């Protein structure tokens, strides 16, 4: 693990090193391995003593391929937003590795971190609090140019901001307005324009449509898809709404209690889910057809989500899982492709008894084949 940002990207020219490795389509632009973020729990006032830790993110690994959209789903508290903040270095990682274009960035600081952040931007969840109410739209979108003046010289910044407003579907003449003069959907468009200002390669979207009406959600999602084609962007899209994630994502990762429990192409996850938690999530998605809804086989999970400060041993989902056996409490399942599954069901799943719902009756036998 690199502790010095200058050493990680080259002490002499960190800005140049961050862009020195072009990545072609189909190759990973962001590689995350064993990423950990623990928040300490302390006791005492004058003499604080650590008595535990909240394991918000605990060993997450995945790749983000250039030009793709990776959706991240999971219930509240599973660590999705913390994962996004750690990737942006807004929160310092406790452990693990984040590599951008082959360069370790999880321990960067100073000019090296500044160089990488130019190419990895973020769109925040709440369009009402992520914009400074005391700044005009022009100042908000143009602020990145103050930090990275090489992108747009001073004389060209006003036109650059107006061009960005036009790109996201807003009137360029709105440049002198304040955030309170816009609707929620318009504010989110302003947030997207700010994210595009530095011409990044990666945009991390932390639930960018959860605070918006359904019709406005569709407009923002369509805008993101359009911009991805125009600017060759790679997205990490975090959301609760599984239907939205399916619409925009090429691959989907499912998180539970700080862990990635299943990851695969959108078809593999939505039509051939093999992890019990993913199957429970999908069974809760609303169905517009009343007839189909009446005959639907819904999976109702019992019990509460365990505390991330004291997660269960072995498989973290075992306390709510109908497939749980003794092996699940002893041995933590790895996120890997089960050898007994074939076709679209053969994708990474962290379950000792991974199977599609139609094959649940054979799960125990499959588990025996996996060494239980």
Proportion of residues in β-strands:
15-25%
Strand arrangement in the largest pleated sheet: 6-7-8-3-9-10-11
The overall pLDDT, averaged over residues, is 86
Report the helical percentage.
25-40%
- Report the total helices: 14
Poorly predicted regions: 1-19, 359-372
What does the main sheet amount to?
7 strands, mixed
| Radius of gyration based on Cα positions | 22 Å
Strand tally, please?
A: 11
First-last Cα distance:
35 Å
Overall morphology: globular
Task: Offer a few descriptive terms.
372 residues, alpha/beta, seven-stranded mixed sheet, four-stranded antiparallel sheet, 11 strands, globular, disordered N terminus, disordered C terminus
Describe it for me?
31% of the residues lie in helices and 20% in strands. The protein is built from 14 helices and 11 strands. The protein has helices at residues 5-9, 14-17, 80-87, 110-117, 137-147, 157-167, 184-196, 214-231, 242-248, 266-271, 276-283, 290-294, 326-330, 363-369; strands at residues 28-43, 49-65, 69-73, 95-100, 103-104, 120-123, 202-206, 234-238, 251-256, 259-265, 348-349. The protein has a 7-stranded mixed β-sheet with strand order 6-7-8-3-9-10-11, sandwiched between helices. The protein has a 4-stranded antiparallel β-sheet with strand order 2-1-4-5. The two termini are 35 Å apart.
């Amino acid at each position: 693990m690199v502790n010095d940002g200058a050493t990680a990207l080259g002490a002499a020219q960190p800005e140049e090193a961050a862009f020195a490795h072009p990545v072609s389509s189909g190759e990973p632009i962001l590689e995350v391995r064993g990423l950990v973020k623990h928040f300490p729990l302390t006791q005492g006032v004058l003499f604080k003593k650590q008595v535990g830790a909240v394991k918000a993110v605990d060993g997450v690994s995945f790749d983000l391929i250039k030009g793709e959209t990776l959706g991240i789903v999971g219930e509240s508290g599973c660590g999705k937003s913390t994962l996004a903040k750690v990737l942006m270095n807004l929160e310092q990682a406790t452990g693990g590795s984040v590599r951008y274009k082959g360069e370790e960035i999880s321990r960067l600081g100073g000019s090296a971190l500044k160089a990488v952040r130019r190419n990895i931007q973020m769109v925040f969840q709440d369009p009402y609090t992520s914009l400074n109410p005391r700044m005009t739209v022009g100042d908000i979108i143009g602020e990145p140019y103050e930090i990275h003046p090489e992108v747009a010289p001073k004389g060209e910044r006003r036109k650059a901001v107006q061009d960005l407003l036009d790109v996201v579907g807003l009137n360029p003449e709105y440049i002198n307005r304040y955030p309170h003069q816009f609707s929620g959907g318009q504010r989110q468009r302003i947030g997207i324009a700010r994210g595009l200002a530095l011409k990044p390669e990666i945009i991390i979207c932390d639930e960018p449509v959860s605070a918006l009406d359904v019709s406005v959600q569709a407009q923002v999602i369509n805008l993101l898809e359009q911009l991805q084609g125009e600017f060759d962007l790679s997205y990490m899209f975090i959301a609760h709404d599984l239907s939205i994630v399916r619409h925009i994502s090429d691959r989907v990762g499912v998180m539970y209690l700080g862990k990635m429990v299943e990851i695969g192409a959108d078809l593999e996850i939505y039509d051939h889910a093999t992890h019990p938690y993913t199957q429970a999530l999908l069974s809760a998605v609303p169905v517009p057809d009343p007839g189909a809804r009446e005959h639907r086989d819904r999976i109702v999970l019992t019990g509460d989500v365990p505390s991330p400060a004291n997660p269960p041993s072995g498989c973290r989902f075992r306390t709510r899982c109908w497939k749980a056996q003794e092996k699940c409490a002893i041995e933590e399942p790895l996120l890997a492709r089960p050898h007994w599954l074939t076709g679209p069901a053969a994708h990474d799943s962290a379950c000792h008894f991974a199977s599609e719902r139609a094959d649940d009756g054979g799960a125990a036998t499959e588990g025996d084949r996996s060494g239980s």
